Amino acid sequence: MYDFEYSSTIYEFASVVTFANGKRSEFKKKDQILFNRDDTEKDKFVVTMLGSHDETIDGNPVDDFNQIILQFGKALYPIKMKVSDHGEIEHLLDFSEMKERWKLRREELIEYYEYEYLVKKQSHRYAVGLKSEEKFFGILKENMLYRLFFWYDNKQPQDLILHDFPARARKAIFTFDGKTSIEKKEKEEKGIIYDTYEVHDEGSKKILSGHAQLTIQFSEDGLPDRIMLWARVEEKDVGYFTKEVVIKRL
Questions:
Q1: pLDDT, tens digit, 9 for 90 and up, residues 123-160
Q2: pTM of the prediction?
Q3: What are the residue ranges of helices labelled H in 83-219?
Q4: Phi, psi of 97 (to 5 degrees)
Q5: Using CA atoms, how far apart are residues 72 and 103, in angstroms rounded to an integer?
Q6: In what order do the strands lie in the sheet with 171-176?
Q7: How many other CB atoms sit within 10 Å of the CB of residue 1?
């Protein structure tokens, strides 16, 4: 449980994918997160995600189309949420304001990039996700940073979806079974450890097997100090793909 009234914390997010042919790709960024205890509900927090900065791919600044994708994402921030003091996202705050702010920035980006097809296509993808607060909230909770940082140990089976893995437009979906993983889960000073071999894909049935381990270590104030995810899948006729995610408090 969170044990503070206010916190402003920066986290570094790093994601490395190793492909079956041995090639690696690393994405890194930093995110600042603000926590304020709610004045009316003392067991709740207003959490403000200020957005990312210092993004790199394989050690180089993000450019080309990846930069466009980042700009559309950054136009959403700041994002405010109501979060319980045990780390569960409950609902969004100021969704209408955020949506209108994003729409204004979208028009600026489309004009800046001279109405290129890929830019308008990316704009449409975000617009679909922002059609309703419920839809956007569902997408947000599947985002890797949000999913891992606000992981709530509710003792029930939980899915962890790895988007664009092992390939673009694909999904590897791991299930951590709260009922059967109790014996595998260790709660000590170091935190919580989950382990699973239960995995399936988005329906292509190309994944033959998989293994994932999630470790969450906590600071004294209850916030995550370090989150580590290691996941591997075996794809039919291709080989093994590995994804490693580390989120650490700076």
A1: 888 899 999 999 999 999 999 999 999 998 777 889 99
A2: 0.90
A3: 95-112, 117-129, 133-142, 144-149
A4: -65, -40
A5: 10
A6: 158-163, 171-176, 199-201
A7: 10
